[in-house]
UniProtKB/TrEMBL annotation:
Gene3D superfamilies: Winged helix-like DNA-binding domain superfamily/Winged helix DNA-binding domain
Organism: Microbispora bryophytorum
Domain (HTH marR-type): residue spans on this chain: 15-63
Domain of life: Bacteria
Pfam family, one: MarR_2
Protein's name in the database: HTH marR-type domain-containing protein
Length: 102
């Protein structure tokens, strides 16, 4: 379940950021597909989505048999060094279609 990882085995973004980015690009994605694109297990993706929802970064809504995810672009970063920035800025920088005026 691994995507091509860089030499040294680390990246600048966490799996939480990767999941948030994947859901911002396709808010109707199945977690199975998100997990595959990030290179993690489906269970890990579920845990990350629960973390992100509990922290106010996204909202999960049941639509029929699927979930629809809405990102809160005005949620601040968690670390004190970046706390003055909003998550929508990162998503926009990485090419996600996010309305930062919300």
């Amino acid at each position: 379940m691994s995507t091509s990882s860089p030499a040294g085995g680390w990246t600048f973004l966490t799996n939480h950021a990767h999941v948030l980015l994947a859901l911002s690009r396709d808010p109707d994605s199945r977690l199975r597909d998100v997990a595959q694109s990030v290179g993690i297990t489906e269970r890990a993706a579920q845990t990350i989505v629960s973390d992100l929802e509990a922290a106010g970064y996204l909202h999960r809504e049941r639509v029929g048999r699927r979930n629809h995810y809405t990102i809160n672009p005005l949620a601040p970063f968690r670390h004190p060094i970046e706390r003055h920035r909003h998550i929508g800025e990162l998503l926009e920088l990485l090419g996600a279609a996010v309305d930062v005026r919300s």
